[in-house]
Amino acid sequence: MSRITIVGGGIVGLSVARAMLKRGHEVHVLDQGPIPNPRGASVDRHRMIRPHYGDATGYARMVAPAFAAWDRLWDDLGAAHFENTGAVAISLEPGDYADRTLASFRAAGLPHEVVEGAALARLMPHLDLPDGAFGVLAEPAGPLFADRIVAELADWLRVKGARLEENCRVARVDPARGLAWRADGSEIAADHLLVAAGAWLPGLMPEAYGEAPAYRQALLYLDPPAAYAEAWRAAPPIVTLGDHTGYSLPDRRGAGLKIGYSAHRRRARPDVEGFEADFAAESRAILAPFAPYFRQAEAYRPLRLQLGYYVLAPERRFRLEAAGQGLVVTDCDGQMFKFGPLLGERIAGLFAGEENAADVTRWAAGY
Ligand SMILES: Cc1cc2nc3c(=O)[nH]c(=O)nc-3n(C[C@H](O)[C@H](O)[C@H](O)COP(=O)(O)OP(=O)(O)OC[C@H]3O[C@@H](n4cnc5c(N)ncnc54)[C@H](O)[C@@H]3O)c2cc1C
């Protein structure tokens, strides 16, 4: 049996914790907040899992194994916090994200359906789409009920004997030597150290990651007009509407309808800029790009903003940095939730010496 210290109790830290615990190791997770921490990127009502990845076919291919890993988690939790609604990327012009996804699906032989004309209007009656628009529909895909997942995963870890230390900020780490220091100066030594600190990484390891590009993103929960409430609930989530103009998650299991607009994000750090928001201005800014495509766009009623931070590198590939006894996970982008349990299992294999760091790093980078 070996010991592992994990800095960060989000989906990455908790998934590695579970995989290590299942292998019989001693697990100690620390988080600066409660576990789960509502400020972490992993806590929201829902996150999307879908195979649509534009040209990034490596990530599209990772989605089937990711589902198998989710199934193993559902077995442990005794409940499946996912609904298979399918997901649709909508193409508005040649060469956009949905169009490139279609080419990638065809080249890789991944299952999908192209929906156009009257069929697309039936699938998405709440949208007003230009002539020539088509949808790339794929399943399994849909909402993962993120807040339930991380809460139940944390409880499962506690019951199974992991040590979850809450409200304890780690001030310094030396991953290569497996060492971490709490803010009060006390040292924690272990055989392995995982740093899964999300967008707080630049503050935790300023020498190595001080320039890591952290972004703030805000998502908008809203009430649709009554005439389209059932259509939104029944329809698959939108992966992208045109070239990254927007995406949606449906109101399933009481989660609420949520939309996001990728270009709304901006460079910012959670430990510097914090969690304040201008509700009225940000709601308008998120909703405006959807207006040309929503029927009765003026009748949508903003309810609440959900803020989150992630590190997003220009190459948009997850980054694992292994050194000595430690591993740092970063560049999780707005994409890692769906791969959390699968990544956890691979990292546990790496710590066990069953896999080599170069292979796992390359796999995580989507090659
Ligand atoms: C708005 C938004 C929408 C997204 N949409 C999707 C989606 O639809 N599908 C998808 O797959 N992914 C999505 N993602 C991405 C996904 O949610 C993240 O990539 C994933 O949750 C990152 O998990 P994590 O464990 O690395 O980080 P986090 O969940 O942020 O966890 C990091 C934890 O580390 C703790 N911590 C940090 N520093 C310290 C320290 N010094 N000491 C102690 N504790 C510390 C923090 O408190 C935090 O709890 C989205 C992300 C955001 C923000």
CATH class category name of the largest domain: Alpha Beta
Query: Structural class of the helices, strands and pairings?
Result: alpha/beta
In total, the number of domains comes to 2
Major sheet details: 6 strands, mixed
Question: Ligands in the structure?
Answer: flavin-adenine dinucleotide
* CATH homologous superfamily (4th level) name of the largest domain: FAD/NAD(P)-binding domain
Radius of gyration: 20 Å
Strand arrangement in the largest pleated sheet: 8-2-1-12-20-19
Annotated CATH architecture of the largest domain: 3-Layer(bba) Sandwich
Helix percentage: 25-40%
Question: Would you tell me which CATH topology of the largest domain applies?
Answer: FAD/NAD(P)-binding domain
Distance between the termini: 33 Å
In total, how many beta strands?
A: 20
Low-confidence stretches: none
Q: Strand portion, in percent?
A: 25-35%
Shape: globular
Mean pLDDT, nearest integer?
A: 97
GO molecular function: flavin adenine dinucleotide binding; sarcosine oxidase activity
Protein name: Sarcosine oxidase
Cofactor: FAD
Pfam family, one: DAO
Describe this structure in words.
With 367 residues, this protein is α/β, with parallel strands linked by helices. The chain has two domains: 3-45 and 146-212 and 315-364, 3-Layer(bba) Sandwich (FAD/NAD(P)-binding domain), CATH 3.50.50.60; 86-142 and 214-311, D-Amino Acid Oxidase, subunit A, domain 2 (D-Amino Acid Oxidase, Chain A, domain 2, 2-Layer Sandwich). The protein contains twelve helices and 20 strands. It has helices spanning 11-22, 57-77, 97-108, 117-123, 146-159, 201-204, 206-209, 229-234, 270-273, 279-287, 340-351, 357-364, and strands at residues 3-7, 26-30, 47-49, 87-91, 113-116, 134-138, 142-144, 163-165, 170-174, 179-182, 187-189, 192-195, 214-223, 238-241, 247-249, 258-260, 266-267, 301-311, 319-323, 326-330. The strands form five sheets. Strands 8-2-1-12-20-19 form a six-stranded mixed sheet, with helices on one face. Helix 1 (11-22) runs parallel beside helix 5 (146-159), helix 1 crosses helix 11 and helix 2 packs across helix 11 (340-351). The longest helix is centred in the first third of the chain and has 21 residues, at 57-77. It comes from Aureimonas endophytica. Residues 3-348 form the FAD dependent oxidoreductase domain.
